[in-house]
Each structure stands twice: as C-alpha cells, then as structure tokens.
Sequence to fold (215 residues):
Amino acid sequence: MAVLLVTSSVALLYYTKYQQEVTNNENYIGDLDSALNSYRSLSNSFNASLQDYNETLSLLTSAVADLNTSTPAYGDASIALATLWKDYQALDSASGRRAIVYEVNMLLDFGNGTRRWYNDTSIQPGWNGYVVTLVLLDGRVQATWYPQYGEHYVTGLGGVSDTQSDYWFLLTYNKTASWQVAQLGADDISMFNDTTIGWVYCPENSNYAPTCALP
Fold:
C-alpha cells in the first residue's frame, strides 16, 4: 500500500510538472505568435514607408525638373529632394533588401584651383544630369527652366553664379576621349552606372566655348 501511495505521489508530481510545462509552452507559443504578428505589422508599415518615400521622391523629381529656381516652390522642393533621398537610402539600407541604384561621379571645378569631387555617389535610376547635380549640391543650383526646349539654363552652382565674363560649362567624360564640353544640356544627359559628368567655371570665347583647360 505504501509503495502504491509513493508511486501515485510521484506520478502526480510529474503529471503536475508536465501540465505546467504544457501551459508554459502554450504561453511561449502565444507570445511568439504575438511577436510574429507585431513583426509583420512593423514590416508592412516599414515597406509602406519605403513606398511612400519612393513616390514622394518621384513627385519631387518631377517638380524640380519643371520649375525655375527663382520660385519659392523650387527652393523648397529641391532642398527636400536632397534630404529625402538621403533618408530614403538610410531606410532602404536598414531594410536589408537594397533597391537598385546607380553609382555616378561628378566634378565641380571652380576655375581657381578648387575642385570638388562627388565620387561613387548613389542615385536613383532614371535621374538625368540636372537632377543629379541638384541632389549632390543639396539644392544649391540656380537655373532658368525653358519648357519649349525642355532644358534648364544653369547660371549658378554651389554658391558661385555666372558673371559677365565667367560661366558654368557642363562636361562629359569617357575613358577614350577624356573630358569634353557636353553636346547636350544637363536635362538630356541620362545617368547610368559609372557615368561621370563635370562642371567647370571659366571665361568663354566668341564661339561660346570655355577658354580654360579642361580637367
């Protein structure tokens, strides 16, 4: 009888512990499900934020591509575009997926020995030379938009404006011919991976060509 009582007590003890473990496991599973649901909700919100950023970037890019730099809307949009692009890249990097971007280079030559390079800079596919210049210079671009030509006439970069003698000239680069004066306006220059453009500030001759030596 005593053996039976001991055996029953031990069995009851193990059964009680078993039930506790079952309950604990169920609680763990419930917590895990809750955490997974929270993760899915956060992931969906994060992805929605990235999509919103992407759409806003597209809208701002379209806005600055069709506005004169003298308008208040242009100033706000251009600065916002540069800031938003940096924020978008940080969010995209945090997502671990990394959207497709191009790496481009741009030279700013002030004509007085000062040169500023923007190397291996990430841009969004589809941006042209004008938008890239605007974003890399954080909106510090002066230009007049001519809708009949679909072009901006750039008159100032990085705080340096055209004068009666000195002007900004757009350059293109390729490994075969090195630097050349661009045959197209910045709006018509498509930017791809490893594209290099430059801007040089110097006097022009009677043929409206730069008189300074190219980089």
